[in-house]
Design the sequence.
């Protein structure tokens, strides 16, 4: 297909390559940089639009929390036979940045200055190509600098403003030269071939450099004709920098009673059936059963009356969903419901294990999650700083207008759930050394939040000792599980359950969160059996007692201040960012095993000594 770029995995579209993200492609062996277009292009490129499309997914609790009617999976092109016409539908990417550079002559110029071939996405330098033996194309490459602001806007780097032309220069829209004449940014020189003005790129990433620059342009290239005004000061970023795009995602586990197949099987019929008066619903179902709803009723094994009753029960329990936080309900499913799940629940099956000594003094529940389903939705994104509040309003939008759906993926896998003993946790977090370590993390987080949102702004959360404990232990357990059962570290993910108040939580779920075969091997949940989990916990804690970066790590000299952590580094507890729900922030190894100055701060110190 003309201008065809490259394939992306579904999971990538809902993580780092969603609408608004800059993606590096290889088209005909040439580098092409594009920005994934907004959700309106999904409807235009993959009809039918919206939730009428067959590639949709439902998760009732997450739908209510996010205020949408459903989710669309990143569209996949259907396989066609050899004799059939190929499906030409594609997701759309907009060329960004528009400025390109020739690697041979070092010219930088907008896309219109370069040559192209019909139906091809690449561009090449006509002058350098003409000089090459055999006229081998010299492809131009995307420039390395772009402008962005904290509201998600992004624009071209102001090359002509940066070079500061002489007053009589006539080359204020043409090509410039960007050559490396020395080491680092100070040796990277931007110059004008007309007026000979020169300036190094030193200081390009400094905030002070851009104080005298005009306000942000408000450009949103991923949306069509949807630029907006913005009073923020932009910053220069590298095009491939990790802080150019932070996906804002929210997820939910499918748990009873919402994990049955009712709404999923009804699909597009659901909205029409719930909007019918209860007294008329059975009659309306009977009418539809004569058409396309008939096979659905047969699949569910229900009569029209039974289906009407099931829908009514579902609607009555819909009001019980707490949209402020979906995790307490999940926590209760793991720790409160007696007995094992029956096999009829195809999305949530758990097996409780006896908690043996010596773990029973520190853990109240060990649960093997034999079958799990997670729906992960992309709600927006941020630039420069990672999202501090997933429910916040400062996220950049995925579409020009609000749509009744969001992009999402569903992953099925397995996991291990561990709940800490609440009485022991409550006594431990009251210790002065523990409170002091948690307060330092919370103060760093609060100061960073207020520096970005104003001194009067209250952060959406506080960093508690029990969250630091559960989060750090989840990282230690994931590192050990990758060694025990052969999973790649990026294929495991954590889900932290930590809260104070009337309904306290202190637990964690480590589960397979990948959409490929790693999610269904079965080896992870088997590590949660009573005769295995004790040894795994022992070895995980033993690995935390000493870090190859000690004594610097345990003395809190290795952690980045922006991570709001204490004793944490890559050699001990940091995990792949795809595995951590908090971008490797809020970690403290000393809260697991203690520190030289305060050994009592380690929650598992006595347990580690017993092994």
Sequence:
């Amino acid at each position: 297909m003309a201008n065809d770029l490259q394939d992306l995995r579904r999971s990538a579209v809902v993580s780092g390559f969603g609408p608004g993200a800059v993606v590096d492609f290889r088209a005909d062996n040439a580098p092409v940089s594009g920005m994934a277009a907004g959700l309106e292009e999904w409807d235009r490129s993959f009809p039918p639009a919206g939730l009428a499309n067959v590639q949709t997914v439902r998760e009732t609790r997450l739908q209510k929390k996010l205020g949408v009617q459903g989710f669309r999976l990143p569209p996949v092109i259907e396989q066609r036979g050899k004799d059939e016409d190929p499906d030409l539908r594609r997701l759309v990417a907009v060329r960004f940045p528009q400025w390109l550079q020739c690697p041979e002559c070092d010219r930088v110029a907008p896309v219109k200055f370069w040559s192209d071939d019909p139906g091809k996405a690449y561009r090449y330098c006509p002058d350098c190509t003409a000089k090459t033996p055999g006229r081998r194309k010299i492809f131009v490459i995307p420039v390395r600098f772009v402008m962005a602001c904290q509201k998600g806007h992004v624009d071209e780097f102001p090359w002509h403003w940066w070079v500061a032309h002489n007053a009589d220069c006539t080359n204020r829209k043409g090509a410039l030269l960007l050559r490396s004449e020395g080491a680092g940014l100070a040796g990277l020189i931007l110059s004008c071939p007309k007026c000979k003005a020169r300036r190094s790129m030193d200081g390009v990433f400094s905030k002070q450099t851009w104080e005298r620059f005009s306000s942000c342009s408000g450009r949103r290239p991923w949306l069509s004709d949807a630029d907006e005004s913005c009073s923020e000061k932009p910053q220069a970023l590298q095009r491939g920098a990790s802080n150019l795009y932070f996906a804002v995602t929210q997820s939910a586990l499918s748990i009873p009673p919402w994990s049955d197949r009712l709404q999923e099987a009804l699909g597009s019929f659901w909205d029409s059936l719930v909007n019918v008066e209860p007294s008329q619903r059975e009659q309306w179902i009977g009418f539809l059963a004569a058409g396309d709803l008939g096979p659905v009723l047969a699949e569910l094994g229900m009569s029209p009356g039974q289906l009407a009753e099931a829908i009514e029960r579902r609607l009555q329990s819909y009001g019980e969903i707490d949209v402020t936080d979906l995790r307490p309900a999940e926590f209760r499913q793991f720790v409160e419901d007696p007995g094992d799940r029956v096999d009829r629940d195809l999305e949530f099956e758990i097996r409780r294990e006896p908690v043996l000594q010596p773990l029973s003094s520190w853990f109240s529940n060990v649960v093997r999650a034999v079958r799990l389903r997670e729906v992960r939705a992309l709600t927006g994104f941020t630039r420069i700083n990672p999202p501090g509040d997933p429910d916040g309003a400062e996220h950049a939008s995925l579409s020009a207008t609000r749509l009744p759906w969001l992009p999402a993926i569903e992953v099925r896998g397995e996991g291990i759930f561990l709940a800490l003993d609440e009485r022991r946790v409550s006594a431990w977090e009251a210790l002065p050394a523990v409170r002091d370590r948690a307060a330092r993390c919370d103060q760093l987080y609060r100061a960073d939040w207020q520096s970005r949102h104003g001194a009067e702004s209250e952060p959406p959360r506080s960093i508690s000792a029990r969250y630091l404990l559960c989060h750090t232990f989840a990282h230690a357990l994931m590192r050990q599980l990758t060694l025990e059962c052969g999973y790649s570290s990026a294929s495991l993910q954590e889900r932290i359950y930590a809260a104070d108040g009337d309904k306290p939580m202190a637990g964690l779920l480590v589960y397979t969160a990948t959409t490929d075969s790693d999610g269904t091997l079965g080896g992870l949940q088997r590590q949660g059996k009573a005769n295995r989990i004790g040894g795994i916990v022992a070895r995980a804690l033993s690995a935390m007692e000493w870090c190859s970066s000690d004594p610097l790590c345990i003395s809190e000299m290795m952690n980045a201040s922006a991570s709001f952590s204490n004793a944490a580094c890559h050699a001990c507890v940091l995990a792949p960012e795809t595995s951590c729900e908090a971008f490797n922030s809020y970690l403290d190894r000393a809260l697991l095993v203690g520190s030289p100055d305060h050994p009592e701060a380690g929650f598992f110190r006595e347990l580690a000594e017993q092994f």
User: Anything to note?
Assistant: The radius of gyration is 28 Å.
